[in-house]
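Structure tokens please, single chain.
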Amino acid sequence: MFKQIIHTDQAPAAVGPYSQAVVAPEGRTIYLSGQIGLEPGTGDLVSENFEGQVRQSFANMQAVIEAAGGTLENIVKLTLYLTDLSKFASANAIMADIIPQPFPARSTVGVDSLPKGAQFEVEAIIVV
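Here you go.
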């Protein structure tokens, strides 16, 4: 899939692994529900460790993307939810390790709580 990345110096530069905006080509737009760090077999959180939950959340998201016929390259927009925004840099580093460039557009939101006591959730929009 070809993604056109939009960037302007008239707006602030990205402060993490994301683009200011992405133009998606023609195709099917698929809206993925949020994924938290649950182990698929048990439905339990993978661990109490933030980084472990982030990695499992992205793995769960990737499984849904692949079930929809896509790959991580098909992501045009991500939304990250963190219960502790002081862990923003850690989430950025993990995302940069998992998501291929050019990075999708992204929002990050601080929330009071997430289902099952999770510390992190990710949702995506893909175009395949």
